[in-house]
Amino acid sequence: MSMTKRYISMDVIRGFAILSIIFLHSCFAHYRNITKIDFNDPPLSVTIIGFLLMWSGLFSMISMIANTTTQLSRLKDVLINTKTLLYYFFSGGALIIFF
């Protein structure tokens, strides 16, 4: 069994992103007057949290890069055949289409 190379910086960034997303979603979900927000003139705290939550796409990009580099390093050790490549291609396409 071979050890795959881990990028510690990517793991740290991904961990920080996970904690940040959990914190921001918790703040937004537990906002005391969430049902009384005037969306024409929202409070500054709601605006800042909403803006930061829009960066969650960056989290998915970081996770994608970390997972792709890990998978590619694993594929170097394994005999790559057409069936494996087609599986990765179609599963990646399904993720892009459905999410």
The end-to-end span amounts to: 34 Å
Biggest sheet layout: none
Output the helix-strand order. Answer: HHHH
Question: What's the quaternary structure here?
Answer: single chain
Low-confidence parts: none
Portion of residues within helices: over 70%
Question: Averaged pLDDT, please?
Answer: 75
* Structural class label: mainly alpha
Radius of gyration (CA) equals 19 Å
Strand content: under 5%
Task: Characterize the overall form.
Answer: elongated
Count of extended strands: 0
How does this model look, in words?
With 99 residues, the chain is mainly α. It is built from 4 helices and no strands. Helix 1 packs antiparallel against helix 3. The longest helix is centred in the first third of the chain and has 22 residues. The two termini are 34 Å apart. The model has no long low-confidence stretch (mean pLDDT 75).
How are the SSEs ordered, and which strands pair?
Layout: H1 8-29, H2 44-53, H3 56-77, H4 82-98
Helix pairs in contact: 1-2, 1-3
Key structural traits:
single chain; 99 residues; mainly alpha; elongated
